[in-house]
């Protein structure tokens, strides 16, 4: 399989005392890293970017999103993406590791923010001009603090990140209200479920298997998943399998039958039928489309 670049936070121009956080003016960032940021790649860190001007498309895990003034994107570690701009863009971008957030923000988990809760949740939020002016000020403060040398620099940056995530979560939840009134216990079950699926999806695809791991009934697990992301547990599992299938189909030189076997389908016809029914085109058509 052709390996896609997985970018490490230390590859970017950083401050000596902050090796697990990075911030920049977006236009400057794109110019400084032009050789790597426009090609398909993933990261081993969390990324948040806010566009104050510009147009284009942002492809994330094979889904395309329109870029315009006020677009905010959130990426989790491991997600594949690439940019395509049709005009000059500007804004702010920051990265951080999970450890940076956990060490500096007490009693808050990144997965509690709705945009980081699940891969099923959209990675984009569109702000209007009023919202952009308010949120953009915090992004500017994060970038100013990163490039300054004031006392309590790390603590200030962490506080600002937490603040911008809180404000963005409120706006995100207004547009996508599924998780507003969901209990914390349900959200915790979903978080653990996604971790378990990530470990086992190539070999285990039944609801019963994951319910057993979580020590709950399949019926209750389905209730949790439906309440939090409005899908069945089976759909949740299948979507993760298909995402991996897409990655392997486009970035591997192996036969499609080998891709199917890698994902636990030893009957290629079964894999092919599933892919066509869920994606709408055959695996071969998908490969041709995205390689072009």
Automatic annotation (TrEMBL):
Keyword line: DNA-binding, Transcription, Transcription regulation
Domain HTH araC/xylS-type: 191-289
Keyword Cytoplasm (UniProt): no
Alphabetical list of Pfam families matching this protein: AraC_binding, HTH_18
Entry annotated with the keyword Transcription: yes
Name of the featured protein: Helix-turn-helix domain-containing protein
Annotated organism of origin: Olleya sediminilitoris
Organismal lineage: Bacteria, Pseudomonadati, Bacteroidota, Flavobacteriia, Flavobacteriales
